[in-house]
Design a protein that fits this description.
This protein has helices at 2-32, 40-48, 58-75, 90-106, 109-126, 131-207, 213-241, 258-267, 285-305, 342-347, 355-365, 390-395; strands spanning 271-278, 310-317, 323-330, 369-374, 380-387. It is α+β, with helices and mostly antiparallel strands. Among the domains are: 2-128, no CATH class; 253-396, Histidine kinase-like ATPase, C-terminal domain (Heat Shock Protein 90), CATH 3.30.565. InterPro entries: HATPase_C_sf, HATPase_dom, Sensor_HK_TwoCompSys, Sig_transdc_His_kin_sub3_dim/P.
Length: 396
Amino acid sequence: MRAAFAGRGEVTLIVVVTATLYAVAWPTLHLTHQVPAPLQPLIAALAAFPFLVVRANPVLGWSISIAAAIVIPVAFDSTPEAPGGPPWQVVHILVLLALYIAVCLTEQRERVAAVWVGTVVVFAVYAPGSDWFGWVVGLTTILVFTVLLRRLWLSRRQLERQEELSRAERSRRAVLEERARIARDLHDVVAHHMSLVVVQAQTAQYRIGGLKPETTAEFDSIAGTAREALDEVRAMLGVLRSDEHMAERAPQPGVDRIGELVEGSRRAGIDARFGVTGDTARIRTAAGVVLYRIVQESLSNASRHAPGSRVRVTLRVADGDEEAVVEIVNGPARTWAAEPGVAAETDGAAGGGNGIRGMRERAAAVGGTLSAEPTDDGGFVVRATLSIVETARQAG
């Protein structure tokens, strides 16, 4: 907004200055040149109006002004009352010098050299007597001064940019240090204890005698689930520790592992069933990861808030359709359940938890939608609809 106001203010100033110069050049033109009255507005405009482009295109303005400086003395004689010096109006000289300075400050070296040569030659030719030498020295001094001023300004700008980069680098390092600290804390709090869970589950059959085969299988299932969770935690910690997010990690799970996920939940005591219709190979990788995470979170919610309930997971990819729909429905709790309202407060759509909110964010990240609401029989249903054709569209 400030830049817009500054731009308009600059344009207004240039227009006002040009109008003032023109108001001076036209009434005083008859004092310096013998110009017919009908042509006086045009000749005065040639002297003053090039200043209009002093900011936008100083080379163009200088070209018009220097051409007028060459033509006017040839086409029109000076009046006897004209003061000594170059055969131009004072307004014309001021505008020409202003455009000359603007070129020296803003244009490339080759254009600056050409403008300097052209200006020096014109003044050397039209300046009376020995005045031409003073004009040449003056124009050269202006050139040297403006070039030095330009270099000083550019060096200041470069220094400011370097300072900005240094501040950004310090901020980036602070973020990386914070990420590394978080990774260390997560490792201490989560990964260490998950490792203990794996060890305890794997050694339970050796430490506790007389375990039944189904109990041993249960411990093995617990160890496998904990190991998989530990691998994912370590992968996330690797990302936190990595400067460029290039930590080595296993491929993200997709739709091909949803069946394994449901089977693992069944071994953990959840009455879960999985059904799939359609060609799941059409589902793009990003959508597959989101589908897996939604099913994973929904099964976890069902086990916590509706223990003993039956859970049905269905994945549909209709032929010719551009969307995949996953639906996770659980009935009411059959064993001990959380107090009424706990599930909604923790993971519900209107609650303050992160479970369903996180699933919605995952779905939105790949251009999908997710709904979560209680059912009439006291259960809960999560339904997500995700686009599966982004890769195909890009390839086409």
